[in-house]
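Full entry
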Amino acid sequence: MPDFEAFKPILASAAPKLFDLLDRFDRAKILVIGDLTLDEFLTGQVERLSREAPVLILRHEYTRQIPGGGGNAIYNFAKLGAKVKAIGLTGHDAQGEALRRIFAEAGIDGDRIITDANRPTVTKTRIAGHARQSVTQQIVRIDRKSDQLPDLEIQNQLAAAIRSQLDTVDAVVFSDYGEGVLTPTVIEAGLSHSRVIVDAQKALNRYPGATLFTPNLPEAENAVGYGINNQETLANAARDLLALTQAEEILITRGEEGMTLCDRDLTLHHIPAFNRTDVFDVTGAGDTVVAALTLALCAGASFWEASVLGNLAASIVVRQFGTATTSVEEMKTALNNILEDT
């Protein structure tokens, strides 16, 4: 596999096309179907121990709310300039209203997000505290979610919403976080599009014939049932994943080892990580990869060019703590910085 230094001349040769693709990100129309989540961060200063129980009492300072799960994928598309439509579920609650408000403020079309009064909006609330002049640390996380699948009527409404939009978008993206939205009825509706990108944590075979899958290394290992720890097992896994999913391409994201793209001819293309030294947090990086590579494909990129731009986008967001997004301008700057070092 090429190391980063060996890859730089290849990247420099492709750079004019990559910049041109970035300029066309804002032309893409994307439909994202996913498990919508609200990430809440409640932060306060520790005042004392409670007299009621041996627990900390925090004086609340601020609450931050951002899209998580499939919502983070949607948000990434919007921040990269795409015209994005969201399909998913929220509950009839304040968290659902907050998520819709965040989407609206980002210019995301959430008209086809369905409210399910029988389910809460999937919410992950992290409570963090700090003493004076000390580092803030997470104390506890509270999850709101349902273990039940949506009623069949809700599933049919989701499928109908998907079918009504297929002719209006350039790509369909499934963002599957295992929260129950992506049932067979819903998946079948989305697979009718000619360009389908799947980001699923497990059960990849539920999306037969999709264009491209983007499993990370643990997800790929789980799907094939064995460890991927050398070139032979990597090639075998790519072959087995293609057979399992019937996809055109498989992109395995491998953290500090970069990415490996494989097509139906079993040709492997290795792309080294663009940032191995300043990695603070990989949370949500997969959503960023999916957003950038999907927009590149819609702009006319090859699968390899799209993967390179996905890799570039990920190299930016992993420098930030928590779920993060990037922009076209930041990607251009990052690419220029890499090229200037060649």
Summary: Residues 4-23 form the longest helix (20 residues). The mean pLDDT is 92.
